[in-house]
User: Which sequence fits this backbone?
């Protein structure tokens, strides 16, 4: 340490405060986003917006009721396809399985989790839209479902692993078979965690736009049936925000506020439940 | 497990035939069936991955045969005359992701150092919570804010300033539009900071306490201990987090599509409008008419997939190695 002590203290103070500034800036981004959406979206959010169909450009009073319902339908399909696969697969990773195979499954799941969502959209397009020759709610649901699988798989495994070993041993000592012990003791013990993990996963895919653009596509009216294209909130926001019309911009802000609130409330709620649960366990 | 010891003894005594009976016994109690069913579901993830690669590969046969490797080096993208080259998109994707890393890595690592080394645990946890929420914000929302908030600021304030001060560099020349590579890079940077931050924080926290204490005991300042001891110790994990963020940036679609300008051109200037692989897929896929057009877009998707797979695989390995290393020496 041949530099003068004063210089070292100065560098120390400078760099540490720079780190603090970095943290402050990173954190404030969320509040800036929230502020803008509340201000710009809140002004245009009306009851008709939630309950009416979109109107042609220039006609006032348009809403996004079909997009809200469409998002719900796509998410429901995604949950029905993705959650069971991820959940049961997660049970295997946590309860059965040896050493090498589960590692491979886990690694593949992590890689699949990192695949760009638009690629998942192309996948659903080639598997569902090409054979059916038209866009459909089903294709959008499957695209999001495929994205759900690795996320639910990993979170289910994690929460099952957090269940104390003594509970399993207790069940086995009472004469239960392994599968019975898992079904009646281990899964109920980890259920809250697993459920919040699923909620987090759903919140994540709920905001996805890219996989839906050319699977469930868009629809200006109510979607009739599962094999018809449907409007969804994220795709509507994209279409409206990239358009040239002031009125559509306002609606994009309002729809953005709804989407952001749904995602953030689900996310924050799940994380708070998890945090409280672990603190009780401690 | 369900069978009482007495039965097991009998089965052992029965020899080979007993093993079969033990298997049947376990089958009856459901263990083998449960094992098999859960195994199939877990293995379905391989099936999904293989199917994904297969579908992407098979469905881009036309452009692969017509353009070969030239696809990656051609600058023309002309749907009307069915002439497709990916270079402008690859360029746009790579440039925006790298510039985003330039902004996001110092920011994220700096903030991670603050959260892991300086902030009191309660504050650190609260801020991490906020950062995790930020990571959950849908990308289309970033796009909306990009178009309506960031682009006007860039156009009227930041880009004229950069042009005036750093205008001698080729990156900061030419007309100012607002939308373009720089806007896309900034939005991407904001989106990937949470990834760099939360993983870097984790690997920094996994650095054994003794490392810090030894450095401090030797008379290092807090910053010196962090920068010369803790960060080097965690560098593989930090690099892993950077790779993970890079993979995110490469595949990010909506926010980029909304602010990059969507022009398949290659320009040195960051102010110029460009295009990225994910953006062109998002914009043209639904309206593509010819088979060749659709398949060229699918080939771009395949490139994107392979690229992110490789980078992710590297990142996961690095993170796995460091977090294990850190906890191995408590």
Assistant:
């Amino acid at each position: 340490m041949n530099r003068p002590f004063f210089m070292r203290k100065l560098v120390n103070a400078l760099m540490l405060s720079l780190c603090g500034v970095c943290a402050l800036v990173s954190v404030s981004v969320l509040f800036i986003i929230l502020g803008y959406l509340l201000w710009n979206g809140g002004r245009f959010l009306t009851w008709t917006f939630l309950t009416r169909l979109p109107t042609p450009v220039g006609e006032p009073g348009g809403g996004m009721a079909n997009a809200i319902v469409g998002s719900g339908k796509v998410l429901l399909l995604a949950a029905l396809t993705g959650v069971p696969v991820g959940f049961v697969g997660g049970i295997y990773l946590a309860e059965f399985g040896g050493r090498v195979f589960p590692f491979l499954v886990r690694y593949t799941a992590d890689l699949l989790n990192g695949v760009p969502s638009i690629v998942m959209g192309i996948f659903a397009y080639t598997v569902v839209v090409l054979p059916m020759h038209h866009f459909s709610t089903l294709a959008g649901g499957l695209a999001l479902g495929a994205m759900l699988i690795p996320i639910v798989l990993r979170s289910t495994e994690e929460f099952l692993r957090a269940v104390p070993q003594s509970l399993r041993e207790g069940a086995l000592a009472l004469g239960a078979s392994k599968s019975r012990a898992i079904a009646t003791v281990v899964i109920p013990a980890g259920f809250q965690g697993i459920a919040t993990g699923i909620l987090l996963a759903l919140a994540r895919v709920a905001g996805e736009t890219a996989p839906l653009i050319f699977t469930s596509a868009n629809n200006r009216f109510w979607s009739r049936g599962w094999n018809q294209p449907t409007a969804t909130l994220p795709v509507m926001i994209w279409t409206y925000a990239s358009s040239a019309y002031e009125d559509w911009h306002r609606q994009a802000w309002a729809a953005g506020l709804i989407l952001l609130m749904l995602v953030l409330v689900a996310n924050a709620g799940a994380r708070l439940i998890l945090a409280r649960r672990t603190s009780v366990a401690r | 497990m369900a069978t009482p010891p007495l039965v097991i003894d009998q089965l052992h005594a029965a020899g080979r035939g007993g093993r079969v009976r033990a298997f049947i016994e376990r089958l009856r109690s459901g263990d083998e069936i449960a094992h098999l069913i859960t195994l199939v579901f877990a293995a379905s993830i391989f099936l999904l991955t293989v199917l994904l690669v297969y579908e992407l590969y098979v469905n881009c046969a036309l452009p692969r045969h017509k353009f070969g490797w030239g696809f990656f080096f051609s600058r023309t993208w002309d749907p009307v005359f069915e002439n497709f080259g990916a270079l402008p998109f690859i360029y746009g994707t790579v440039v925006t992701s790298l510039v985003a890393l330039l902004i996001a890595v110092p920011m994220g690592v700096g903030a991670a150092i603050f959260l892991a080394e300086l902030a009191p645990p309660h504050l650190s946890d609260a801020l991490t919570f906020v950062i995790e929420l930020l990571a959950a914000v849908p990308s289309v929302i970033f796009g909306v804010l990009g178009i309506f908030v960031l682009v006007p600021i860039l156009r009227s304030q930041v880009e004229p300033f950069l042009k005036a001060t750093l205008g001698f560099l080729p990156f900061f020349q030419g007309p100012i539009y607002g939308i373009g590579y720089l806007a896309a890079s900034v939005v991407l940077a904001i989106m990937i900071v949470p990834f760099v931050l939360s993983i870097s924080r984790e690997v920094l926290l996994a650095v054994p306490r003794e490392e810090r204490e030894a450095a401090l005991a030797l008379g290092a300042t807090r910053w010196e201990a962090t920068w010369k001891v803790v960060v080097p110790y965690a560098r593989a994990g930090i690099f892993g987090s950077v790779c993970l963020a890079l993979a995110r940036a490469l595949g990010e679609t909506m926010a980029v599509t909304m602010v990059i300008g969507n022009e398949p051109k290659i320009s040195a200037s960051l102010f110029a409008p460009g295009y990225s692989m994910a953006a062109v897929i998002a914009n043209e896929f639904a309206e593509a008419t010819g088979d060749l057009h659709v398949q060229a877009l699918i080939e771009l998707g395949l490139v994107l997939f392979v690229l992110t797979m490789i980078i992710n695989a590297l990142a996961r390995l690095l993170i796995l190695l460091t977090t294990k290393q850190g906890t191995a020496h408590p």
